[in-house]
């Protein structure tokens, strides 16, 4: 378990260092980079909202179907 936490910590640290290096060494200006990142984040959030809404509709339909299905009464002991 300790190895797993060490791996995940190293992975997170590496991701942060890589992202920082990419931002600092990017050929764009800071404003352009911020705009591009903001657009990407907005797109990801919108896709997430859309996927959540689709999944919610699927689950609501399944729940409504489950409520309509007749079930035999529970047997008493």
TL;DR of this structure?
The chain has a domain at 28-68.
Topology:
Elements: H1 2-24, H2 30-68
Count of DSSP strands: 0
What does the main sheet amount to?
Answer: none
User: Per DSSP, what share of the residues sits in E-state strands of 2 or more residues?
Assistant: under 5%
Counting DSSP H or I runs of 4 or more residues, the number of helices is 2
Order of helices and strands: HH
Radius of gyration, taken over Cα atoms and rounded to an integer in Å: 24 Å
The assigned structural class equals: mainly alpha
Helix content: over 70%
Spans where pLDDT lies below 50 across 5 or more residues: none
Inertia-based shape: elongated
The average pLDDT score comes to 87
What distance lies between the first and last C-alpha atoms, to the nearest angstrom?
47 Å
Question: Could you characterize what this model shows?
Answer:
With 77 residues, the protein is mostly helical. The protein has a domain at 28-68. 81% of the residues lie in helices and 0% in strands. It contains two helices and no strands. It has helices at 2-24, 30-68. It is elongated. The mean pLDDT is 87.
Give short descriptive properties of this protein.
81% helix; mainly alpha; 77 residues
């Amino acid at each position: 378990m300790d190895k797993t936490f060490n791996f995940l910590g190293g992975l997170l640290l590496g991701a942060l260092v890589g992202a920082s290096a990419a931002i600092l060494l990017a050929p764009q200006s800071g404003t352009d980079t911020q705009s591009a990142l903001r657009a990407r984040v907005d797109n990801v959030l919108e896709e997430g909202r859309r996927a959540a809404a689709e999944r919610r509709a699927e689950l609501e339909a399944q729940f409504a179907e489950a409520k309509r299905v007749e079930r035999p009464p529970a047997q008493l002991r």
